Amino acid sequence: xxxxxxxxxxxxxxxxxxTIAYTFSKSLDDAPNGGNNNDIGSDSxxxxxxxxxxxxxFDYGPSGFDHTHRLVASYVWNLPALGKQNGFIRQALGSxxxxxxxxxxxxxxxxxxxxxxxxxxxxxxxxxxxxxxxxPSLSGVCTTxxxxxxxxxxxxxxxxxxxxGTLSKDSFRGPDLIDWDMxxxxxxxxxxxxxxxxxxxxxxxxxxxxxxxxxxxxxxxSFGEITGTVGGTGDARIGQMAVKxxx
Length: 247
Known about the structure:
This protein is mainly beta. The chain has helices at residues 55-59, 87-93; strands at residues 2-12, 16-29, 61-62, 69-78, 96-105, 109-110, 129-130, 148-149, 156-157, 172-173, 177-189, 195-203, 225-226, 238-246. The strands form four sheets. Strands 1, 2, 3, 4, 5, 11, 12 and 14 form an eight-stranded antiparallel β-sheet that branches. The chain has a two-stranded antiparallel sheet with strand order 6-10. The longest helix is centred in the middle third of the chain and has 7 residues, at 87-93.
């Protein structure tokens, strides 16, 4: 069940190509925690047996890929060659090209699980139980070195033996993501057909750390802690330079 508001703004001219796309959406399904509609029964078990009539209701919640807000902006900005200016101005200010793509999105969902077969069904997918009156967003105690506290372990408990837990699937959200890649190119015309281009490109240009979701198993010693970053966009700033000859 997917609903969305999608908006796109485009600007195209001889000197600027700009695209800004925004999506405000919600996707719901009854695939088990960690699974999707393509692999049900192959790698993800429901917390409840498939014969249980409450199975679909218990697993109904945000899809694993659901992000409420997502904004992507890309641009290519070409400065004129300034052919009528003197040589210094033409070489210093003319024939520059700026490019970039920025991505911003709200956090993805995750499910707090028991991490133990409390229901004694052999499925191993039991959920946690909230502790009344305790704020789940308070920081816990960091015990594994470099990590970020995200959930308060005291706000969750294991379900009683013989029960499945009560927390809904994907009822919590992880950290948001912001990533910006950009490039700066300077073109040096040599002849009408040949030009030299100096290139500088930066990935995660603003050096922002984008974190993974926290450990979500109550039985884990690192429950509630974030110990890793998103692959690619979570890396520290990377810069590279090159010279390119067009002929």
